[in-house]
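A favour, since you know our structure tokens better than I do. Just paste the record in under my message, thanks.
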Amino acid sequence: MTDKQGAKNAKISIPYFHKDADGHFSMGGPGEPRPLYAGDRLARDKVSIVIVVEGPKCVTIIERLGGLGTCSWGGAGQATKTDWSPLAGRDVLIWPDNDPAGHKYASDVASKLQQLNLPASVTFVDVAKLALAAKGDVADWLAAHPGATLHDVLALPRVDAPGDPDVDADADAHERVPIISLGDLIDSGVKDPEWLIEGFVPAHARMFIAGQPKNGKSWLALCLAVAILSGKPFLGESTKDTPS
């Protein structure tokens, strides 16, 4: 995907609106249980095997191959908040992402499908045999196999349970993330932080303000910004001069 500035692989967020009971449109996701993504196509095709993946991107890729794909709204953690009833009694192939979150998602989906009045027939793509990197998904596999067809996807090795993610892939992921002990961190000569407001707002770093809704977070942030830019004290603490 390309954004307006021409940057490739940019993620573009489009607000979702739904109609309230009184007929007005409001911004925000639908109520629970949430509808399945591509539910209209599921309703039109009640025969084809359904391939459950993570995210609309992967659903689109399945559709480009001529397959029937779907996913839950809101990511891997939302499977239990979704209405899976359109898949009752259907043949379902679940393709987990190659990481613990993906395998938990696959298990959650399978559990919901088995709880339907007419349980779905569920199998899983055996991602451990696909040589995927950590977090690899159907898009990554197809990128490595550009000539693959829907027939090739349906012919991939399957298992009756999602199992564990590829251990080697997880090991590679851990190797890419440096781990340092507290002792080594202290010995590395870390400097004391530079403060815009002593002990409260660090310079050259991010900070966040958390609290219950309507408790004045926005006003607090505004007052902080004014104090720092003007050099005036904030809650009795002096502020460091900053360039305008």
The beta strands are 17-19, 25-27, 50-52, 68-70, 91-94, 121-125, 158-159, 195-197, 201-202.
